[in-house]
Design a protein that fits this description.
single chain, binds flavin mononucleotide, 352 residues, alpha/beta, 13 strands, TIM Barrel
C-alpha cells in the first residue's frame, strides 16, 4: 500500500515538503480517538528475544530512527507508535539556526538514495528541552548534538557542552555529531586535537552529574583508515560509550542516476542504498579494531531487513534507519523485527 499508493503521492512533492506532510499527518493522529492504538496494533511487534541491553539501557528492539528525521524532538512519540526501539532527535545546536537555503533535500529514486545539505537546521536545544519536558518520551531518546555553524572549531567544545548540560536529565543518551558533511569545516572536528578537546570537555560535564549518561560519537564513512584508527584510540582512552557508524557520504561513486541529474543537485551528503557497503565496512572495521570494546550503532544504507541483519552480524549492537524508512514506509521497522526474529528462531532450531 505504501509503495503502491502513498509513496508515489508523496514523491510528487519536493522532498522537504513531503517530509513535512508526513510528519504533520503522523502528528494529526494524536487528535483522532483510538488512532494511535490502531497504529500501534498495526506496526508494533514486541519481542523478548530481541530486547538488547547496551550501555546500561534496555532497548525493546534493536531498530531505531537515525538523526535528522525528528530534528526538533517534536515527533518522537508518534514515531514510537511505528514500533521503533529508539530514536535520535536532532542534530541540536545550542542556538537555533536556519540551516542552508532550500532546495536542500533531493531524491535519487533510481539509486534508492537521498542527497541532503540541510546544514543542521533546528530550533535549538532549549526548544527541544521544552518538548521533552511537556511530552514525556515513550521511547528511548538520544540527543544528537552539534555545534552552531558560526561557532569556530576551536570553540566547538563549548557548544557540545552547553547542549549536553541542558538536556542531560531529559534524554537517555547522547551522540556527538562531528561528521555532518553539510556544515563548513565540521568534519575537521574528527581530527585528533579538536576531537580530544570535544570529548574531554563533554566527559568533564558528565562527571558533574550523578547519573552517567552514555555518550557516543557519530563518524563519517569517508575517513581514511589512519583517521579511523586515531578516533577509535581516542574513544577507548576517553571512555566514549560507543560509535554511530556512519553519517552520510560525500562520495558519488557507482550511482545509477544520470550524471547530469547528480551534478545538478550539487553538494550534500548521500544516504541510502549506495552508502550501505561503505557503512558496513566501517562497522566491521571499528568492531575488529576495538576488539568489540566499542559498542556500535549501525546507520547507513539499510534498505532491507537482511541488510539490518548484516550490520548486526558485522558487530553492530543496534541499527538505525532514515532513507530506508522513506523508501519502505511505516512498516519498515516491523519488517526488520520480523526478519530478525525468524532468523533467531531458525538459528535456535539448528542448534537444538
Ligand atoms: C535529510 C537528512 C538529514 C539528516 N540530518 C542529520 C543530522 O542532523 N545529524 C546527523 O548526525 N545525521 C543526520 N543525517 C544522517 C542520518 O542520520 C544517517 O546517518 C544517514 O542518512 C545514513 O543513514 P540512511 O542511509 O539510513 O539514511 C541526516 C540524513 C538525512 C537524509
Amino acid at each position: 500500500m505504501y509503495k503502491l499508493l502513498i509513496r508515489p503521492l508523496l514523491f510528487l512533492f519536493p522532498a522537504e515538503k513531503a517530509h513535512k506532510i508526513t510528519m504533520a499527518t503522523l502528528k494529526a493522529l494524536r487528535y483522532i480517538p483510538g488512532a494511535r492504538f490502531v497504529v500501534r496494533m498495526c506496526f508494533c511487534r514486541r519481542s523478548k528475544s530481541l530486547e538488547t541491553e547496551l550501555f546500561g539501557i534496555k532497548f525493546p528492539n534493536p531498530v531505531g530512527i537515525a538523526a535528522g528525521l525528528d530534528k526538533n524532538g517534536e515527533f518522537y512519540n508518534d514515531l514510537a507508535n511505528l514500533g521503533f526501539g529508539f530514536i535520535e532527535i536532532g542534530a541540536l545546536t545550542p542556538e537555533p539556526q536556519p540551516g542552508n537555503p532550500a532546495p536542500r533535500l533531493f531524491r535519487l529514486p533510481k539509486d534508492q538514495a537521498l542527497i541532503n545539505r540541510m546544514g543542521i537546521n533546528n530550533n535549538g536545544a532549549k526548544a527541544a528541552l521544552k518538548q521533552l519536558r511537556s511530552n514525556t518520551p515513550r521511547i528511548i531518546v538520544a540527543a544528537n548534538i552539534s555545534k552552531n555553524s558560526d561557532t569556530p572549531n576551536d570553540l566547538a567544545y563549548k557548544d557540545y557542552c552547553r547542549s549536553l548540560a541542558l538536556l542531560y536529565d531529559f534524554v537517555d543518551f547522547f551522540v556527538l555529531n562531528v561528521s555532518c558533511p553539510n556544515v563548513k569545516n565540521l568534519q575537521q572536528l574528527q581530527g585528533n586535537q579538536m576531537l580530544s578537546q570535544v570529548i574531554e570537555s563533554v566527559m568533564e560535564v558528565r562527571r558533574y552529574h550523578e547519573t552517567s549518561r552514555p555518550i557516543l560519537l557519530k563518524i563519517s564513512p569517508d575517513l581514511e583508515q589512519s583517521q579511523l584508527d586515531e578516533i577509535i584510540h581516542l574513544c577507548l582512552i576517553n571512555g566514549i560509550d560507543g560509535i554511530v557508524a556512519t553519517n552520510t557520504t560525500r562520495s558519488r561513486d557507482n550511482l545509477k542516476s544520470p550524471e547530469k541529474t547528480v551534478a545538478a543537485i550539487g553538494d550534500g551528503g548521500l544516504s541510502g542504498a549506495p552508502l550501505f557497503e561503505k557503512a558496513l565496512a566501517t562497522v566491521k572495521y571499528v568492531h575488529e579494531k576495538s576488539n568489540g570494546l566499542l559498542p556500535i550503532i549501525a546507520s547507513g544504507g539499510i534498505m532491507t531487513p537482511a541488510q539490518a541483519s548484516q550490520m548486526l552480524d558485522a558487530g553492530a549492537s543496534l541499527v538505525e534507519v532514515y532513507t530506508g524508512f522513506i523508501y519502505n514506509g511505516p512498516a519498515f521497522s516491523k519488517r526488520i523485527i520480523r526478519y530478525l526474529k525468524k532468523k533467531e528462531r531458525s538459528k535456535a532450531a539448528r542448534q537444538s
